[in-house]
Amino acid sequence: MSTNALPTQSSDFPAWYGEVVRRAGLAENSAVRGAMVIKPYGYAIWEAIQRELDDRIKATGHENFYFPLFVPISVLAQEGELVEGFAPELAIVTEAGGKTLEEPLAVRPTSEALIWATYARWVQSYRDLPLLYNQWGNAVRWELRPRLFLRTSEFLWQEGHTAHETEEEAVAEALTILHEVYADTIENVLAVPVLRGRKSESERFPGAVDTYTLEALMRDGKALQAATSHYLGQGFPRTFDVRYTGRDGSEQYPHATSWGATTRLVGGIVMAHGDDRGLRRDTRWKPQQVVIVPILREEDADVLHAAAALADELREAGVRVRVDDRPEHRPGFKFNEWELKGVPIRVEIGSRDLAAGAVTVARRDTGGKEQLPVPRAASTIDELLSAVQASLFEAARDVRERRTLRDPSSYAEMIEYLREAGGFVVAPWCGQSECEARVKEDSSATIRLLPFGDEPAPSGACVCCGRPAVTTAVWAQAY
Q1: CA distance linking residue 467 with residue 46, whole number of Å
Q2: At what angle do helices 264-273 and 13-23 cross, to 10 degrees?
Q3: Residue 451: is the preceding peptide bond cis (ω within 30°)?
Q4: Which listed residue, of 71, 97, 188, 295, carries a Cα 20 to 30 Å from 113's Cα?
Q5: What is the pLDDT of residues 281-307, one digit of tens each?
Q6: Fold of 290-400
Q7: Does the model's pTM come out above 0.90?
Q8: Domain 404-476 is of which CATH architecture?
Q9: What pLDDT, in 10s, does the model give residues 14-47?
Q10: Nearest-CA neighbor of 128 among 40, 297, 9, 247?
C-alpha cells in the first residue's frame, strides 16, 4: 500500500476519490475501456448492500428470477421510446461462433423489453396478477466518461419488474420499493441521507409515466441518484401485447413498474462519508466492523491471547471482527491501512495496555481514542458502533443542510451557486421545459427531483422566468 498522502478533498475531489477507491482495494480499471475490476474488499461491500436490499425486496413479497444478458434487436426495437433513450449507450453483438448473426443482439442496457415480451406468455387472467419479480445481474451502457463505480460501461445491479391490475396498485408498488426497500437501506444501513421525490418529465426513465427517485448529496456538492423506481403505466404491456381477462370478463392491459439500484452505491458511500484519510464506513453491515491490532514486541503470547479472547467475545455479540496479527507489517502501517479502508472501530492491545488492564479503542469517524477496561471492552465497543452509525448519518445530513440554498434571491445567485457545485438549490419552478433547459445550459445542473407534497404558495414565482410557479424543484450538478 502506498504511504504517500492522499489528495485532499478541498484541493482535488476527483483525484481524492480515485485514490481512495484504488488504495482501499475497492476497484481498478480493467483492460476494457469503461469497465472495472471490483476487488475483494469492494465486492464484499457490494455483497453486503445486496443482502440488505434482497432481504427487504423479499420481505415485500417479491421473488428473484433471471433473464438472458442478450436481447434480440427486434424485441428491443418494439419499444421505440426505450430504444431512443438508450441508443447512444447500446452495445451490439453482430458476430458469434465465427459467423455473422442473422439478427444482432443488444447487450442488455435494461430488461423491460425482453421481460415484457415473456410476460405475454405468463399473464392470461387477473388471477395471474400481480407478478412481483426481481433480477440480480449486470447491465451494459457504453459510457463516454467512465468513473469507477459511479459510471461504468458494465455495472452490477438489481432490477425489479412487476405487473398489476390497477394503476393505484402499481403506483403503490413503486413507492413501497422507493421507501421501504431503497430509502430504508440507504439511510438506516449505509447512513446516507436522501431526498425523496419524482423526476421532471425530461429526466424520467424512457417509457415511464413517472419516475420516483432518491437523491443524495456528496461532500463535493454534487448530487448522486441513489436509486429509482418507475411507474410505467400500460405502455410496455400494450407494446408487447400483454393482455388478461379482468374480473368483469373484459380484456385488459396490466400496469407495470420497474426499479433498480446499482454498484454506484459503493461510490456513494465513499463520497458521502470519506475524509482526507480515506473511507469512513457505516457500521450496520459487513465486512469488518472492528479490527484488533496486537502491538507485539518479539514473542508476546499474552497480547495475542488477549486479542483472540476479545475477538471471540465480540463475535459472540454478533460483531464482525478481524485480528490483524500480520508479522510483516508494523502497527503504524496497519493503523493507516484500516483508516484508509474505513473500518469503524480499531482496538489496539499492547503489553502496556494489558499491564493497565485496558485496551485502546479508536473511532474512525471522529479519530478519537479512549482506554477501556478489558472486562467492559466488548459491551462498550458494541455501544460505540451504534454511536458511529448515528454520527456518520448526522454528519452527512449536516453537509447536505449546509450546502442547500433555499429560495435564492435571484436567478443569477442560483446559477452562480450551481456552477460552483455548491450543492442543492431549492426554488419555485413554473414547470416549463424551457426554464429547465435554460438552467442546464447556464450551469450544467439538472432538476434532481420534485419533492413529494411540496407545493409552493399561490404567489410563488418561478426562479427562472418569474411566471407563477406550479411546484418546487431541487437542482444540482450530478454524477
Answers
A1: 46
A2: 120
A3: no
A4: 97
A5: 988 766 789 999 999 887 678 999 999
A6: Rossmann fold (3.40.50)
A7: yes
A8: 2-Layer Sandwich (3.30)
A9: 999 999 999 999 999 999 989 999 999 999 999 9
A10: 247
Residue 466 confidence (pLDDT) above 70: yes
| The pLDDT value given to residue 85 | 76
**Residue type at 179 in one-letter notation:** H
Which strands form 195-198's sheet, in the order they lie side by side?
Answer: 63-65, 131-140, 154-164, 255-262, 223-233, 210-217, 195-198, 446-451, 471-476, 424-429, 404-406
Give CA–CA dist 200/367, Å, rounded.
42
Percent of the chain at pLDDT above 70?
A: 97
Any long-range contacts for 253-256 (C-beta under 8 Å, 24+ apart)? Answer: 254/119, 254/123, 254/129, 254/131, 254/163, 254/164, 254/165, 255/163, 255/164, 255/165, 255/166, 255/167, 255/169, 255/170, 255/231, 256/112, 256/116, 256/161, 256/162, 256/163, 256/164, 256/170, 256/231, 256/232
Chain center to CA of 196: 14
Interatomic CA distance for residues 52 and 181, integer angstroms: 9
Q: Give domain limits for the chain.
A: 13-273, 290-400, 404-476
CATH number of 13-273: 3.30.930.10
Through-space distance between the first and last CA atoms of the chain, rounded to whole angstroms: 28
